[in-house]
Specification:
Layout lengths: L3 H12 L12 E2 L6 E2 L5 E2 H4 L2 H11 L3 H17 L1 H4 L5 E2 L24
Antiparallel strand pairs: 1-2, 3-4
Helix pairs in contact: 3-4
């Protein structure tokens, strides 16, 4: 079972979202330490943009920063992938929103793309 200190660190991580102005959120968070990292060196489109969950969290906590963070993610992806013209984005992105170079990267409305659309 997690210690009280671990639970407090997780609660603080959730209550105080930290998103750099021009970066997408990290893909992995160590719940024991709160350390953020991208273990695969990419960010999944569907994991970076989940507005329904975060806007609901803002509604119930009264903390608008959760919803603002999702709007920021959309701005980053839109700017780097030209969504207004294409309407689609690849499922694997760098932390700056650029296309992650990989043979496995593709545009998908299913796995790793579903939550975005």
């Amino acid at each position: 079972a997690p210690s009280a200190e671990t639970l407090l660190a997780v609660k603080e991580t959730i209550q105080q979202p930290r998103l750099a102005k021009d970066l997408l959120p990290a893909s992995d968070i160590n719940l024991g330490t709160g350390q953020r990292q991208n273990l695969g060196n990419f960010i999944s489109l569907a994991e970076a943009y989940i507005p329904l969950e975060f806007k609901t969290l803002s509604l119930y906590t009264g903390n608008c920063s959760y919803a603002r963070g999702q709007e920021q993610v959309l701005r980053i992806v839109n700017a780097s992938q030209n969504l207004e013209a294409t309407g689609v984005a690849p499922i694997l992105l760098t932390q700056t929103g650029q296309t992650f170079k990989s043979a496995d990267n593709r545009i998908s409305l299913g796995s790793r793309g579903d939550s975005f659309y």
